[in-house]
């Protein structure tokens, strides 16, 4: 089997509306990588159902993430965009990896601990074994690189451990050891209400995050209400790093503007937050509004969306099937 040297896989869950963290931490980076890599972008609905999803809205959320990929600039004619549950090889390899990964490895996953909280006896088994499925998502394509936000670093390390253990156990070099691609000035976008918490779909406060579906007015309100501290903006990176809310807003600015943190710090040194926020509103609206309106247009064309996902499914299966077959042969299953 021919092994790719520059192949990307990444996934986004259809578990709620997409927010600025998803865009800056992941999707925007996907767009910049599509020229250089062969890419597989997956809407990971099997991951989404590790927590309850309303069947009445799941299908639409799945289409929405697809539309967001395309509206953000991922070219569906050059990249594979598809839905995880439509490519059965993910779940099949996921089971095989459940038998490779060790309980001790999964017990260390901080995302599980955060999500399960005090309720760990009553969450789904899927929420616990989630990272083994994520490893399967990546390795079923023999992907070599995985662009993600900073919060997925630990899951990527687990993927590498699984690939390594499989290769060692079966004395093969079949699976690549994939590299995380975590880059840009906003690898971890924080809540607008609390600079110590990650911006997330599950935060109860709508004002904690900017959605890709927010109107210009909503974006403006949310940024104006964003928590800050009473000092003017700092003039150096060291001071900035000790002020979580300022750091978050400046990182968002730098990432949206495609400029370095240093340059934005220099530009706003000693200025008041009110002025900075006004500029951030203008910048965020100018960058996000075209994406939102394109997303709406694509969502109105269900036939087009379906054709993109059908093509994506077929090309994904054509790569995944032989990898699964080879894995089963290595394990010793009858063909
Ligand atoms: P999810 O919505 O959990 O499926 O996340 C999809 C992608 O967005 C993953 O690559 C995450 O690492 C990334 N992501 C999610 N939240 C954030 C955040 N607050 N900051 C940066 N990246 C994020
Ligand atoms: N676990 C990722 C998240 O919560 C989503 C995901 C699932 C993923 N499978 C993946 C990301 C494979 C990268 C590669 O954000």
Q: Would you kindly provide a brief summary of this structure?
A:
The protein is mainly α and 335 residues long.
Count the DSSP helices.
Answer: 14
* Main structural class: mainly alpha
What's the helix-strand series?
EHEHHEHHHHEHEHHHHHH
Q: Tell me the fraction of residues in β-strands, as a range.
A: 5-15%
What is the first-to-last residue Cα distance? 17 Å
Oligomer: single chain
- Give the strand order, joined by hyphens, for the main sheet: 1-2-3
Helix content: 40-55%
Low-confidence stretches: none
Compounds present? Answer: adenosine monophosphate, tryptophan
Taking all Cα atoms into account, the compactness measure Rg is 21 Å
Q: Using DSSP, what is the number of strands? A: 5
Shape: globular
- Mean of the pLDDT scores? 97
- Specify the biggest β-sheet: 3 strands, parallel
Main features:
5 strands, 3-stranded parallel sheet, binds tryptophan, globular, single chain, two-stranded parallel sheet, mainly alpha, binds adenosine monophosphate, 335 residues, 14 helices
Blueprint (SSEs and pairs):
Layout: E1 7-12, H1 20-33, E2 38-43, H2 45-48, H3 55-72, E3 80-83, H4 89-98, H5 103-107, H6 110-116, H7 125-139, E4 145-147, H8 153-169, E5 179-181, H9 216-225, H10 237-241, H11 244-257, H12 261-268, H13 273-299, H14 302-331
Parallel strand pairs: 1-2, 2-3, 4-5
Helix pairs in contact: 3-13, 4-7, 4-14, 7-8, 9-13, 11-12, 11-13
The structure holds adenosine monophosphate (AMP) and tryptophan.
């Amino acid at each position: 089997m021919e092994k790719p040297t520059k192949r990307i896989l990444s996934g986004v869950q259809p578990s709620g509306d997409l927010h600025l963290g998803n865009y800056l931490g992941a999707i925007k980076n996907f767009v910049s990588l599509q020229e250089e890599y062969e890419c597989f972008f997956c809407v990971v609905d099997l991951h989404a159902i590790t927590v309850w999803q309303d069947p009445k809205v799941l299908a639409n959320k799945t289409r929405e993430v697809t539309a967001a990929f395309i509206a953000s600039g991922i070219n569906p004619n050059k990249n594979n965009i598809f839905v995880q549950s439509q490519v059965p090889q993910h779940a099949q390899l996921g089971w095989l990896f459940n038998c490779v990964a060790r309980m001790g490895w999964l017990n260390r996953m901080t995302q599980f601990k955060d999500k399960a909280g005090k309720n760990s006896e009553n969450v789904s088994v899927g929420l616990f074994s989630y990272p083994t499925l994520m490893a399967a998502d990546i390795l079923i394509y023999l992907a070599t690189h995985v662009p993600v936000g900073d919060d997925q670093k630990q899951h990527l390390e687990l993927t590498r451990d699984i690939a390594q253990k499989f290769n060692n156990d079966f004395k093969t070099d079949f699976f690549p050891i994939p590299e995380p691609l975590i880059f840009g000035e906003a690898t971890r976008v924080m809540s607008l209400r609390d600079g110590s918490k990650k911006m997330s779909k599950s935060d109860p406060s709508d004002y904690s995050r900017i959605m890709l579906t927010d109107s210009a007015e909503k974006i403006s309100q949310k940024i104006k209400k964003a928590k800050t501290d009473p000092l003017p903006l700092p003039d150096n990176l060291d001071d900035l790093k000790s002020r979580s809310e300022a750091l978050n807003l400046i990182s968002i600015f730098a990432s949206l503007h495609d400029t370095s943190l240093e340059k934005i710090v220099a530009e706003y040194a000693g200025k008041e937050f009110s002025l900075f926020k006004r500029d951030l509103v203008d910048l965020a609206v100018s960058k996000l509004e075209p994406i939102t309106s394109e997303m709406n247009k694509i969502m109105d064309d269900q036939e087009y969306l379906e054709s993109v996902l059908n093509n994506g499914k077929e090309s994904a299966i054509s790569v995944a099937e032989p990898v699964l077959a080879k894995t089963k042969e290595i394990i010793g299953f009858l063909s």
